[in-house]
Amino acid sequence: MESKFTYLDKLNNLVAKDIMDIQMLIINKNTNLSDAVFLMLKNDVQDAIVANDNQIFGLITIHDIAKIFNMAEREKLLQKKVSCFMQKDVVTVQSTTKAIDAKNIMKARKIGRLPVLEDDNLIGIIRIKDIINKLYDVISAMNDNFVNILNSIHEAICIVDKDSNVVMWDQQAEKLYGIKSADIINQSLKDFFPTALIHQVMKKREPIENVCHSPKEGTYAIISAMPLFIDDEFVGAVSTDRNITEITNLTSELEETKDKLHYLEQEVKKISDANYSFNKILGNSNIMKEKIARAQKVAVTNVNILITGQSGTGKELFARAIHQASKREGPLVAVNCSAIPENLFESEMFGYVSGAFTGASKKGKAGYFELANHGTLFLDEIGDMPMFMQSKLLRVLQENKIKRVGAEKDIEVDVRIISATNRALETMIENEKFREDLFYRINVIKIELPGLRERKEDIPILVRHFIHQFCQQNQLKIPKLEPEVLTLLMGYKWKGNIRELQNTVENLVVFSQEGEIRADSLPQKIIENQLNDKIMELEFLKDRKSINYQDELDLDLNEIISEIEIKTIKKALAITKGNKKQAARLLKIPRSTLYYKIKYYDLTELM
Questions:
Q1: Which whole number is the average pLDDT over 102-127?
Q2: In principle, which of 193, 312, 510, 576 could form an S-S bond with 582, CB 3.0–4.6 Å?
């Protein structure tokens, strides 16, 4: 193995001719700047020598031209001669000049290129990169690992000595970080990049590979760095930086829309012609047919709609069916106004920009209005919207523009509003809890959905639908439904409407016995509710002073009461399968009274 002195001798004996690049572009000083740019791009070079018959007049680089492109009158400037923009004070060296002397000249003059002459003829050009490349050729024989790194260099290159002074800064580094080599060569890298990863390599003398880092604000790179050793002596470090600023910015933009994409993904799964259409709204009652027909008529328009009705009457189902029939291009975005904290309302509805408030995501966030652009925004429980937000919503409905929290510019939106509430907004207006002007904006068309007690004839079809749906979802065999159960379900008042009915049906399926849904599987509240109704009917009959029956045979009040008592006792005993204690509790009478009435009415067969 050659000693380090042999290698140093090789370096010291190199002359300009050994390291120069003979591939150079020579252009006439009368050439237009636009033509010079074309020739540089065509020949894939970063610089050109301006010369005629070996007489050098100047030198021009891509960086010189880049300054012109930032000028307002660049089109006129491009038509001027290249001599107007070239660097005129060009330093040259002879072909026999020592390479180390050439390097020192470039350092002293803070220049990146030296034309090489031989017998007054231009034969090549030396660039800093040429010196470093030759240095690589010499050093690579000493360290195979270093050779591998050199072979992987495709981007910005920085080499520092053991004191962290920059000895090499290539054109890609200039482009990536916006710092000229002349301004950083021989300067401490820490003065420019105090957090650069190469400092860690210098300190620990261990390599790092493919680390994403941002040495300068707004600039991102994948960085690999390695310490340099010559015969086990630490001499510095080299780093290669691959520019990923564009990719990082694009990733940031993609991340910004992550919520929207996720939301749309969920909506695509939920919304389909098979699941949300007017054909899937169950009900054959006249009142439901009238509501569906009204909704279908307004669906094809863009007017705002207010859907009212008790909780569980299907307001969101109607909203989705209206949106489905509207054929609007965007999605339906459903928002529960009662579930949003007041201090987050504006940012949730309109979104926010990076740094808008403490805790805000660095990438910002799109609000519900942006998510629903060209589609429908369903504002459920709009009566719970804070007053301050009502005024902001009114402005959006008037101007079709929103502004993200912390932003300066408005964003135009095309959103149809469908609102829903189970509250009396007119009363809230009187109590100054809801804006009257907003009410008229959202209430262009009103659809009032009936409670289940107003459409009891729809209960059978709803019950069978929920049984099939639940069994299909849980891979269960569909049980047989006893007619008495359906009768009891139709007699219940259903304060929770369809939602309560669905929960009850699922409960019945789970607790069905031997493949049948029986009356004794019904929730206690449904049985007690109807027994209470019967008892109230008895009390009512007892207190009546006159009955306007047409048939005089029906005027025997005692007979009527006896018949109702017998039927009610039999029903309670049937439900409890003959358990007198449970039957007495359902009837809300003492057990002794039940025994007395059984004996009195000669119902001993039920004993």
A1: 88
A2: 576
